[in-house]
Amino acid sequence: MTATRHGIVAIAALDLRLRPDHRSELGTQLLLGEVVRIIARRGRDAWCRVRNEADGYVGWARSWGLVEVGPARAAAWRRRARARVTALYAEAREGPGTGALVTPLVWRACVVPLGRRGRYRRIGLPDGRAAWVAASAFVRPARGDLAGRVRNLLGVPYLWGGRTPLGMDCSGFTQLILAEQGIAIPRDAADQERRSRPVEPSGGARAGDLLFFGPQSRPAGHVGLGLGGGYYAHARGQVRVNSIERGNPLYDSALGRQFRGVRRPSRTSSFA
């Protein structure tokens, strides 16, 4: 029997496509430090079909972005990679504030903390290299400060399948923000709708709830994040804030006609 193989994402963002072809649709992106299960291969060390342990998403990635490991090393990485990047973008360099760029890091990447020198932290990367990053890149935001993180992301352009501050889609946006709050939800809007529970209209949407849009005859095609007071944030053209209330200057009439309800995500999810 072939031993189970895992991969640790070793570059800032690794595209996960629906087929093993660069021209294929971008399904999502994997972030540095995320662990995947390798399901299949196509070509000589070219493409791997993988399943992201964080959300269960399956797709094809180039092997050059992965460090292939066995179960024991994957488990060790999960235990040790406790430092999450909270800055939208940071640079890991050879020395503290100096030297060549080792790798860029984006929001929600995870690395191994190795120590600190003044304003810089030494980190371990999936490929075994060490580097230095400004300690400010790891400052934890206040728990529950959804509005603060949304303000931080306003204007980020929409990118189908995107999951970084250089471009993200609607469900990538909601997934990443809720993950920072300790809430794991699936990757796609339709699955996010299925894995959350409806909120009674009388109860009203609260910050952190999910608002879904699209024809009732089909799975949800768009999702936003409730901010309270009828406002929601979402990625539509760019990350923006709109209102579900008719008459509000921020009401999006095109989406309003397709509003299908508010749902509340569970605080725990399993994607095994």
Description:
By secondary structure, the protein is mostly beta strands. The chain has helices at 71-80, 146-153, 170-180, 189-194, 253-256, and strands spanning 6-9, 13-17, 26-31, 35-42, 47-52, 58-62, 66-69, 83-84, 89-95, 98-106, 110-117, 120-124, 130-134, 163-164, 167-168, 196-198, 210-213, 222-228, 231-236, 238-243, 259-265. It has 3 domains: 6-77, SH3 Domains (SH3 type barrels); 81-138, SH3 type barrels; 146-265, endopeptidase fold (from Nostoc punctiforme) (Alpha-Beta Complex), CATH 3.90.1720.10. The strands form 6 sheets. A 6-stranded antiparallel beta sheet has the order 16-21-17-18-19-20.
In DSSP terms, counting alpha (H) and pi (I) runs of 4 or more, how many helices? 5
Q: Report the uncertain regions.
A: none
Q: Which CATH-level-2 architecture of the largest domain?
A: Alpha-Beta Complex
Structural class: mainly beta
- Shape type: globular
Question: What percentage of amino acids are in beta strands?
Answer: 35-45%
What is the CATH superfamily of the largest domain? endopeptidase domain like (from Nostoc punctiforme)
Order of helices and strands: EEEEEEEHEEEEEEHEEHHEEEEEHE
| Beta-strand segment tally | 21
How confident overall, as mean pLDDT? Answer: 94
CATH class of the largest domain: Alpha Beta
